[in-house]
What we know:
By secondary structure, the protein is mainly beta. The protein has one domain (6-32, 58-199): lipopolysaccharide transport protein A fold, CATH 2.60.450. It has helices spanning 6-17, 20-30, 201-204, and strands spanning 37-39, 42-46, 51-61, 64-73, 80-93, 96-108, 111-127, 134-145, 150-161, 164-174, 179-183, 193-195. Strands 1, 2, 3, 4, 5, 6, 7, 8, 9, 10, 11 and 12 form a twelve-stranded antiparallel sheet that branches. The protein is globular, with a radius of gyration of 20 Å. The protein starts with 5 loop residues before the first helix and ends in a 20-residue tail after the last helix.
Amino acid sequence: MNLICPSAMKKFSMVVAALLLCQLVSAQNDDLRLPMQLDADFTDYDGKNSMVIFRGLQLSQGALSIAADEGRATKMDFQDSIWHLSGGVVIHVDGGQIESDSAEMTFSEYELSTATIVGSPAIFRLKRPLTDRDVYAEAGRLQYDVSAGIIEFSEAATITEGGNQISSNYLVYNIREQRIQASSGGEGNPKVRITYTPNDPDRNNEQPAADGDNSAPDAGAPDE
């Protein structure tokens, strides 16, 4: 395991706080009063299993959009329902997207309460404001408990921002406490690995570009 200074780890974990599912819920809350639009190539109702089936599904509400080859819902509304999405699942939010093989989302009182996203791997991309850097994360499985404010990454989870990376078989991020925990997940699994790449001093001493670009400094830089 590569060791890094506490201030660098703190800044790196702050980046993790802005991962896409946090953005997803933020977009949902901001757009809660906007209408939810559902489009599909095909719709069917399975009365035996009390399930509504959609193929070529597109869901949108404000900045949030969800697409999947197939969607199955226990109810048509979002007051109290469970949605199973499969095949080419893509979730767009303002500033990023999630790509996965499948997802299960539970809605309560028109708000997302839990989300389980599975992929081989599931991929998360987030454009960080005021910088040209993206946060990139991948994991075989992600479980988000909205009420608890906890995101669990499992099955070869990796989060990368610039030259900084943390990888583990099991990562837990507590959004409220801005605290990240990582473990190997058991005997025989790879150990937690953290890689921190300091800023290039030559790059830091470069003069501003002619067009007056005043981009924010690299968030991964250690405190002075």
